[in-house]
Design goal:
- The chain is mostly helical and about 130 residues long.
- Helix content is about 45%, strand content about 10%.
- It has helices at about 5-15, 25-30, 45-55, 60-70, 90-100, 110-125; strands at about 35, 70-75, 80-85.
- This is Cytoplasmic protein.
């Protein structure tokens, strides 16, 4: 049996907290498996907080660099997320199933709505 203090420490360490001094953002991704993308920004978008708390010296541009270097990729796993590239192969089966029609995408295409949105963007854009 472990104590409450030991259980708390175990929970924190299993989440990569506190981070190792040398931990990079990529190491944080690889340790956690994915980081859910958050669109809400009060101070900064939450996925940046997750990486900052696990990677000393993290800056939001580090995520852009990891994406452009093809070290992480964006994917809808159970939510919009960034995943380490080592896991890309696990997404291929589902992508192929959707492409072949064997499996449906999580949303249904709505061409009428898409046309309306594009028309509004064109009408209200600065270049419009």
């Amino acid at each position: 049996m472990i104590s409450i203090a030991q259980a708390k420490k175990l929970a924190m360490l299993s989440q990569g907290l506190p981070p190792k001094r040398t931990s990079s953002a990529l190491e944080a991704f690889e340790r956690m498996g994915y980081v859910q993308i958050d669109t809400i920004s009060v101070v900064q978008r939450a996925h940046h907080h997750v990486l900052w708390s696990r990677s000393p010296g993290y800056r939001p541009e580090h995520l852009d660099e990891l994406v452009s270097q093809k070290k992480v990729f964006e994917y809808w796993s159970h939510a919009a997320s960034y995943l380490p590239m080592r896991d890309y192969r696990f997404t291929l089966r589902r992508k192929q199933a959707i492409k072949s029609g064997e499996q449906k995408h999580w949303f249904t295409k709505n061409p009428k709505l898409m046309s309306e949105v594009l028309a509004r963007i064109k009408a209200e854009s600065i270049d419009g």
